[in-house]
Amino acid sequence: ASKLQSSLTYLSMTNIGRDLESLNVIKVLDSCLKLQFIDLANNRTVSLAIPSSDVKPFNNASTTRIVNNNLLYLKASTCCINSQILVQFASQYIALQYLNIAGSTINDSAVEILSLYCKDLLELNLCDCVSVTDRGIEQISRNLKKLQVIDLSNTLSGDGKPIMDRQYTDKTIRSLLGDAKLLIELSVCNQIGITLTSKWLRKVFPIKGNYSLQKFDLRGCDSLSSNYLSTIL
Fold first, then answer.
1. DSSP per position, 107-121
2. For residue range 50-85, what is the model confidence (pLDDT) as tens digits?
3. pLDDT tens by residue, 190-219
4. Distance between CA atoms of residues 170 and 217, nearest Å
5. Starting from the edge strand earliest in sequence, which strands make up the sheet with 73-75, in order?
6. Residue 91 neighbours by CB distance under 10 Å
7. Phi, psi values for residue 174, rounded to 5°
8. Partner residues linked to 99 by β-bridges
């Protein structure tokens, strides 16, 4: 290994464009075994797909491929990540603590499998992942016991409306505030399906809910009922 491969811990390659290939990114990840932080944001051609012949079976050392078990932080917002690729990647890099895959075309099933592989996740950004619903967040809330920060915000389109109408409901808030006991930051900007009127939020949360939450970002949640807001706060 070169000196750089044996010492590199931080790598940022944002906005590089079409010349950045997924296979080369994977090679970098696995050759720089001390690499802990990598930022690939805004590289729309990068999918992080691993050749099937190189996928290491979970908890199986029979393959010759060496996986970087030190990778803790991955920012891959606005890259080309779909459900299959997320599942594959999560099965290989299970030590992840911070994951930003905003704008990815992933679904509930992929999110659930992610939560089963990457148990140490502390921060998760699923902004604009429009195919994820209450069901996926319910699994995240149950499985990621260390989760501290989650962003489920929705970007506004050019006409000022959310790009996904009523993606999440109060079921998501119930799951996170009820099961994610270490959660300190929750962002659901522009999620107009959230009203904070569910019976659980009004009756059960004040007694059994999450009291570790420090930041609750509800900007743009235009369906909020101010009458019930004071009940949970």
1. -HHHHHHHHHH-TT-
2. 876 566 565 554 444 568 889 999 999 999 999 999
3. 999 999 988 888 888 877 766 789 999 999
4. 14
5. 10-12, 37-39, 73-75, 98-100, 123-125, 149-151, 185-187, 215-217
6. 20
7. -60, -45
8. 74, 124
